[in-house]
Amino acid sequence: MQYAARFSIYAPLRLLALMALCITTFTTMAYADHDGQVHDHDTDTAHSEQSLVTPVNVATSTQASISNISTATTNSGDAIQQFVAGDFSKRQAMLSDWPGSAESLDSLVEFIANDELYQGNGGQTYLLNKDDQLFTYPDKKETADWPSDLSQITLTNALRSALIFGQAKVKLESDKPAQRLQAVEILADNIDQVDPAIITTAAANEDSAKVQKALTALQARIDFKNGDLPTQIAAVNLLADSDNPQVLVDIESALAADNLDSALEAALIDAESSVSRRIEISTWTGHIFTGMSTASILLLAALGLAITFGLLGVINMAHGELIMIGAYTTYMVQNFFQAYMPDMAGWYLLAAIPAAFLVSAIIGMIIERIVIRPLYGRELETLLATFGVSLILMQLVRMIFGAQNVEVSNVAWLSGAYQVSSSLVLPYNRIAIIGFTVIVVALLVYLLNKTRFGLFIRAVTQNRQMARAVGIPSARIDMMAFGLGSGLAGMAGCALAQVGNVGPDLGQTYIIDTFLVVVVGGVGQVWGAVLAALGLGVSGTVLEIGIGAVLAKIVLLVLVILFIQKRPQGLFALKGRFVE
What we know:
By secondary structure, the protein is mainly alpha-helical. The protein contains 24 helices and 8 strands. Strand 4 and strand 5 form a beta hairpin. The longest helix is centred in the middle third of the chain and has 51 residues, at 262-312.
């Protein structure tokens, strides 16, 4: 039989595993505002104290200024344009009582933080990006008509403090609990300047249990810093349930003080132990989550290889480049949306997923038809041929896109993170990758077990000659299965583009780990690949924390080699012609 002469598929993988073992800041003391007024450091500090400690006590002239601004809103543009056109006192008044939405204030903070906000000769507002492209605001259209006197909008210490509290005030008044929770976090970062009355008022009007808990914890921190002994002890007992690293810092600082009351010291010691334990639990939960997201990426990359490896017995060294092609397809779809459908640019990822699948699948079928099919039964020649294909694909990408990495931006709805607690934050993009992997695995299992195409793949994998005898077109199934595996690799590249760099060498980063997942899980076994990816992803992350990335990789590869020596068929043995 044509396939009976194949040598052990594990020897080259041991070789691969062994090969892998060898493989603007500055400080200003004086500031000039729009009218040329100079504000020195001491004056700014005084403004800072006033703006946070007594935020509601704004001078009458300031209130008049903001009143005038509000009256002129319809004639002066939106709140950001008014802020840019205003002088120092107007800007401070606006930040103390922001006339726009919380989202517009967040945009102002982002523009200033990124050094993008500029003012033209006549008070017009412009945005200048890092590529020196000038855009008008608010329509954000690029312009070549640069003003002769373009000045950057920067903040003095007083305005920075006003901006911090202004954000907190606007968000506390929001009807969204997430916004109010952000306000509490802003106040917690500036706890020494917060007026306790603000916390009391906000807590009295709060109906969200999560926000109420955050406000209570913030009030306890304030009481611990400023209260009498009974109040401090009560606050410490309350803070013992926290996992906020800053709370631990406060407790450790208090324990280092001299002449500490014995009752307070005992409460602090108990709280220190409790908070440390909670932080450690949150930290390890985050590590496990990171390991699961890494496992999801490995699984996406390995699923296609598990199918083609199990069906054809081919060590496809170009599989990593098919992942790279999926990532570059995502990049091209992003550019297309930005150029021709800018209003829908935030949704390019929904189109990039099927596009990455189709492009990689087509290229994979071409490789199977031209390169792999004439070499069936000649494993070493197939390995070398696909390795040559991988080099060709990498060089083609370098010729077309350049040797440097390209930028694939995260879509807005996957930016940010879900904050489980003060010390545990889960990025939305990695949550999405885990969910996407679950969906892909479910669809693949359905395809292989519930459809006619899946039945043909399983039949050819187990006994090619018998499948041919009953009329299954094995050559066509080989090509389509190889295309399916390549398409899955393309979707893995699409997912990788959301969490890492996209460059010509992208596939080489994951090819060895991908082969290890397939071999440990069992050739051609989807569920084996799932378990192997979880094991390698989580254990790799844990080892990196303990001994570093390089040593972790070496230890992991050694363990995999030992596992292969003990159980060469992997976690799940393949039934069919490989056993025969």
